[in-house]
Write a structure and sequence with these properties.
Strand content: under 5%
Radius of gyration: 16 Å
Structural class: mainly alpha
Oligomer: single chain
Shape: globular
Helix content: 40-55%
Number of helices: 7
Order of helices and strands: HHHHHHH
């Protein structure tokens, strides 16, 4: 399962969410995960077991991979539209600036380079150009705009966008 938290997309979504819902970027929706203000210590959940493993409290996860897995479990209905958005961003619109050949987390990168360079995919590859490209490619009418709209229309995908951004750094 491909999961990659995108700072620019999370920021774009957060701005849209703040305007539309007056919500904080650290709040979450879905099945019990918490945002950045959650406990860092693992505790036993109501049904027993590690809440990071069960998806009950993803803020308790101590590493990035566990946090991504936890949020994918907690927000399973949002994984498909989230992956479509991330694939569009890294494998189609921002392949060069975001290093789509290697940056899709655990999956090892995109399966192939796009046949044409997207108009948003400009600048020296790196975090700044990647963030700029992602913001550009999710604007109305841009390459990944429909994927962002589909994700925003799914509560679990929106939760993944915000909650994955709070996972520990690599």
């Amino acid at each position: 399962m491909k999961i990659w938290a995108s700072r620019a997309v999370a920021a774009t979504f957060t701005a849209l969410a703040l305007a539309a819902c007056s919500a904080s970027s650290t709040s979450s929706t879905g099945t019990g995960s918490t945002g950045a203000g959650g406990s860092a210590a693992a505790t036993t959940g109501a049904g027993g077991g590690d809440p990071c493993v069960t998806g009950a409290d993803c803020a308790s996860c101590t590493d990035r991979v566990s946090c991504f897995t936890c949020n994918s479990t907690a927000h399973q209905p949002g994984v498909t539209p989230y992956n479509a958005l991330i694939t569009c961003l890294f494998c189609t619109a921002c392949y060069t600036t975001c290093d789509g050949a290697t940056t899709l987390g655990q999956s090892g990168g995109c399966t192939a380079a796009p046949t044409m360079t997207d108009s948003c995919d400009t600048g020296t590859p790196g975090m700044t150009a990647c963030d700029t490209c992602q913001t550009c490619s999710t604007k109305s009418g841009a390459t990944c705009a429909a994927d962002l709209t589909a994700c925003e229309g799914n509560g679990d995908c929106k939760a993944l966008l915000t909650d994955l951004a709070t996972c520990p750094a690599m």
